[in-house]
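Posted in: Protein Modeling Q&A

I'm a second-year student putting together a small comparison for a lab meeting, and my supervisor asked me to include a predicted structure for Bacteriorhodopsin. I've never done this before, so apologies if this is the wrong subforum. The sequence is pasted below exactly as I got it from our records. If anyone can share the structure token output, I'd also love a short note on what stands out.
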Amino acid sequence: MQTIHTLATTTQQIVLQAPETQAEIFEYVFDDTLLALSFVVNIALAGLTILFIVAMGRGVTDPRANLILVATMLISVVSISSYTGLASGLTISFIEMPAGHPRAGEEVLTMWGRYLTWTFSTPFILIVLGLIAGSNLTKIMTTCAFTIAMCVTGLAAALTTSSLVMRWWWFVISSLFFLVIVYIIMVDWTAEAEKTGTADLFNTLKILTVVGWFGYPILWGLGVEGIAVLDVAITSWGYSVLDIITKYIVTGLVVLYVAKEPESITAGLDYGSTRKAVATTSDD
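Accepted answer (user: helix_wrangler)
Welcome! Here is the predicted structure, written out as tokens:
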């Protein structure tokens, strides 16, 4: 009996042992090829997307069209930076799951850097969608504020180890913020896009975005942070595929449309001016 008890204790210690230094986490990531590729592929796609936007936007002259292109570029700028942080082990940690969790007592990989990606990139996605729909600044800023709150509370859910109930409560709060954003996109902006004349493009973008975004909380719930049905690598790839759809594919569609400078997008050279031109009179 003593031998069995000793063996069980040793096994538990091995399970609980996890990389601690950044170098160890880096090695851990690249020892798992599937996990590493979920980061590297997105770094490459983000870089290619930036080059694509630069190439397609060279002939665009309208300030409003340029604003949309810059916002789309910033989505990939944030992504390439964030995924580099994940691949390097900088924004990854091992945390111990609380009592009641399927992997309670174990230290599991938490990719908290993904929440940084979403916090800084999703506002730019919403700015693009809002501008294409022809919405006003108030609604655009409202969605940006709620998406930041959604991502920060999602991060809190992932990092809370004091109580399983509190982890899920943070998740519920984050989901409620998400539903506010969905309402604005599906109801308010859909109606505005009809009036603006961008309904065809906007409807495609909203489906890709909203359906894709619903996948994130589902993956959270099924992944190691939730009920742990999916392992870390599969969860990471799930998030990466959703990022590819809601960021790079959406960006491609937007850029191809905006680069043609249709009337529904353009706003004239005075758009966004901080001061109007002053008319002068001559004494002649």
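A couple of things worth pointing out for your meeting: Residues 164-196 form the longest helix (33 residues). Residues 64 and 266 are 6 Å apart (CA to CA).
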